Automatic annotation (TrEMBL):
Homotetramer. The lineage of its organism: Bacteria, Bacillati, Actinomycetota, Actinomycetes, Mycobacteriales. This is aldehyde dehydrogenase (NAD(+)). It comes from the Bacteria. CDD domains: ALDH_F7_AASADH. Pfam families: Aldedh. It comes from Corynebacterium poyangense. Keywords: NAD, Oxidoreductase. Belongs to the aldehyde dehydrogenase family. Its EC number is 1.2.1.3. It is an enzyme of class 1 (oxidoreductase). GO terms for molecular function: aldehyde dehydrogenase (NAD+) activity. The keyword Oxidoreductase applies.
Length: 504
């Protein structure tokens, strides 16, 4: 097993065009959560090499910003083609880094292909508005320009998709990119980056428009503090966002934050229960609870709570937990020992706060794989939304809370510090509309009759409150990677002042 995992990762790296001579050198360890074994070591970037990467990206920007946007789009188109071609190879690397099932890992690469296609179209749609001027013989309009170097800092659980959301758009908008992937997901990062490098070469564009820098949080901090980096797009925990935001703000840089979630679904008495059940199980237990959009709270009407909970517990007992490479496995391991400890601590606290563990929470396969952390997804019935329920624990724990009045359900729903994703299962149109209205869900994503996870790239992705307020991916998220200039052109031959002001 050990050899075959290392071998399949090695051939996937080679297929993606990674320079494998760097493997087994350096201090960065690449450990797979699937078995817990260390696969390779890699050299970390030094302060000097990070500085050099930023310098080169900055220099490349001075040229890249002048390349016509549709031509910039060609690089992203080519990247999308290569990603499509190497979907399986990159998925193997994602699987090794993040322990996803192959279907989910391939889905992550598909998301990259999708955003590339979206960004290619966007490269011809960097629209600015024209507004009527109040002065005769004047034109008033806005134009959009690239920002400069974009620093992308990403999390382990979507090791490559989030990079592509940022990079595909940043590049077509005329920026250059320096990427610091998570120290927990370096191999898939190398694969994704090598495919981009190939696309850049194939299109005859300068290699320096994108850089990858490897290291732990100190490398992230260096990018965060560098004034040549115009925008920091950081994805990760709320703790990380709390550290990053004030540092970037202190130098008047821009930031785009995609942080933790504490996502809930309301299940109303009118809901199609079978549909709700499937939606809840996928969102709560899928990816072993390690999605930012994982459903962590179920707010269910008291009249159906018992019946639904019974069905849910039954469904949880059928989930196959195991090596995500094996056919039929639905739930892989947690990323590391600390994640397991955090889950155990949350369960202990929940019990101390009056919670009742209805199923799950135990470690499995510990004897076969002592360095890997497989757990049974847990369901915990809570008497109230206690302190533990307010936190994001990055593990498969679903807290069940009940409500009597719809208004109380909404209050419970919004009464957490995070605001990423949300859902309601209902056949009552009024409830659905209220949930989507200003007095409904306060999250960046609000769904009806679909779970909290599994967003499409066409919409803007992100959340409110402690989730950070950033938006990435579709819709008009491209604007975050550009600066807006308002232009007034006077072709009147006179010099009338706005608001009728007279001077000279
Ligand atoms: P993390 O915060 O531990 O690390 C994320 C990245 O930030 C890593 O690359 C890390 O090296 C870097 N980092 C950490 N501290 C830093 C600092 N002070 N300065 C600069 N860089 C720093 O997160 P993680 O454990 O990798 O990922 C899980 C978390 O990410 C969860 O909270 C999850 O909800 C969140 N997440 C959010 C989204 C979203 O779109 N909202 C998407 C994926 C993950």
């Amino acid at each position: 097993m050990t050899t075959s995992l290392r071998d399949s990762v090695l051939s996937a790296l080679q297929a993606c065009g990674v320079d494998t001579t760097i493997l087994d050198h350096g201090d960065l360890r690449t450990r797979t959560p699937i078995t817990g074994e260390e696969l390779f070591t890699l050299p970390a970037d030094s302060t000097e090499s990070v500085d050099q990467a930023i310098s080169k990206a900055h220099e490349a920007f001075l040229h890249w910003r002048e390349v016509p946007a549709p031509e910039r789009g060609n690089v992203v188109r080519r990247w999308g083609e290569l990603l499509r071609e190497h979907k399986r190879d990159l998925a193997i690397l994602v699987q090794s880094d993040a322990a996803k099932t192959l279907s989910e890992a391939e889905g992550e690469v598909q998301e990259m292909v999708d955003i590339c296609e979206f960004a290619v179209g966007q490269s011809r749609m960097l629209y600015g508005k024209t507004m009527p001027s109040e002065r005769p013989g004047h034109r008033l309009m806005e134009t959009w320009h690239p920002l400069g170097v974009i620093g992308v800092i990403s999390a382990f659980n979507f090791p490559v998709a989030v990079f592509s959301w940022n990079t595909a758009l940043a590049l077509v908008c005329g920026n250059t990119v320096v990427w610091k992937p998570s120290e927990l997901s370096l191999l898939s990062a190398l694969g994704a980056h090598a495919l981009l490098a190939q696309a850049v070469t194939d299109c005859g564009q300068p290699a320096d428009i994108h850089h990858i820098v490897l290291g732990e949080r100190a490398v992230g901090e260096q990018i965060v503090d560098d004034p040549r980096v115009a925008l920091i797009s950081a994805t990760g925990s709320t703790r990380m966002g709390h550290e990053v935001a004030p540092r970037v703000a202190a130098r008047f840089g821009r930031y785009l934050l995609e942080l933790g979630g504490n996502n809930a679904a309301i299940v109303s008495p009118s809901a199609d229960q079978d549909l709700a059940l499937r939606g809840v199980v996928f969102a709560a237990a899928g990816t072993a609870g390690q999605r930012c959009t994982t459903m962590r709270r179920l707010i269910i009407h008291e009249s159906i709570a018992e019946e639904f909970t019974e069905k849910l517990v039954k469904a949880y007992r059928t989930l196959t937990i195991g090596d995500p490479r094996d056919e039929g496995v639905l739930v892989g391991p947690l990323v590391h020992h600390t994640a397991f400890e955090n889950m155990q601590e949350a369960l202990r606290q929940a019990e101390a706060e009056g919670g009742e563990i209805l199923c799950g929470g135990k470690r499995v396969m510990a004897e076969e794989m002592p360095e890997a952390f497989y757990v049974e997804p847990a369901i915990v019935r809570m008497p109230s939304q206690s302190a533990t329920v307010h936190q994001e624990t990055f593990a498969p724990i679903l807290y069940i809370l009940t409500y009597r009045d719809f208004g109380d359900a909404l209050d419970l729903h919004n009464d957490v510090p995070q605001g990423l994703s949300s859902a309601i299962f209902t056949a009552d149109q009024t409830e659905a509309e209220i949930f989507l209205s200003a007095r409904g869900s306060d999250c960046g994503i609000a769904n009806v009759n679909i779970g909290t996870s599994g967003a499409e790239i066409g919409g803007a992705f992100g959340g409110e409150k402690e989730t950070g307020g950033g938006r990435e991916s579709g819709s008009d998220a491209w604007k975050a990677y550009m600066r807006r200039a308002t232009n007034t052109v006077n072709y009147s031959g006179e010099l009338p002042l706005a608001q009728g002001v007279k001077f000279l």
